[in-house]
Write a structure and sequence with these properties.
The chain is an alpha+beta fold. It contains 4 helices and 5 strands; from the N terminus they run H-E-E-E-H-E-E-H-H. A 5-stranded antiparallel β-sheet has the order 1-2-3-5-4. The structure holds zinc ion.
Length: about 190
């Protein structure tokens, strides 16, 4: 960390704030909360595809993806709370958008829109949350999370937690949603 950067640990746990998350419409839990103590600086662990950890994405066959092209692959997650969750990866092992050529970045913009449209083709989906963290794997992956119409509490930042809180989407519904997205992706290729 550069010398001039603000390190929140300098402030100490007593200065940590507790925003009134329990009053937020999107907060998934009831009851009081208090912030955890910040741990001392610790080594950054290798992510998938770093150091001696093999890259899971590079090792997966196309058969594990619901749609593939020359440069991109789309994988649906197993059924969870939200009706559909997927990740989009380039075939090339790159860590972030910074590592892609301008031509691939232009393709990436088109792909983000194509996948968003495909997920919106599922009945009852109001919005698609598109996220990129890159904390667990060193192979660039974009998250797409389907937020159902009317489920206002699932809007925005806590959607990923709600995905684990909501009852699991029935297998039949989930399979139909995956098929809808795969068909929309195939149709948009032409
Ligand atoms: Zn990789």
């Amino acid at each position: 960390m550069p010398e001039h950067a603000h390190d929140p640990r300098d402030a100490g746990t007593s200065e940590l704030r507790t925003p009134p998350v329990q009053d937020w419409d999107s907060w998934p839990f009831a009851g009081d909360v208090e912030p955890k103590a910040l741990r001392d600086p610790e080594p950054e662990p290798n992510r998938d595809g770093e150091g001696d950890r093999p890259c899971e994405a590079c090792g997966k066959p196309d058969a594990e993806y619901i749609w593939t092209s020359a440069h991109w692959r789309l994988q649906a997650f197993p059924a969870s709370g939200l009706p559909f969750v997927a990740i989009l990866e380039p075939r090339a092992h790159v860590d972030g958008p910074r590592d892609l050529s301008d031509a691939m970045l232009a393709e990436m913009g088109v792909m983000l829109a194509r996948v968003e449209r495909a997920v919106l083709s599922i009945d009852g989906i109001e919005r698609v949350h598109i996220l990129r963290y890159g904390e667990g794997a060193a192979h660039l992956h974009w998250w797409f999370m389907a937020r159902p119409t009317g489920l206002r509490q699932v809007a925005s930042g806590f959607a990923m937690i709600w995905d684990d809180v909501l009852p699991t989407t029935p297998q039949e519904t989930w399979r139909a949603n995956v098929a809808t997205v795969a068909a929309a992706m195939a149709a948009s290729s032409h």
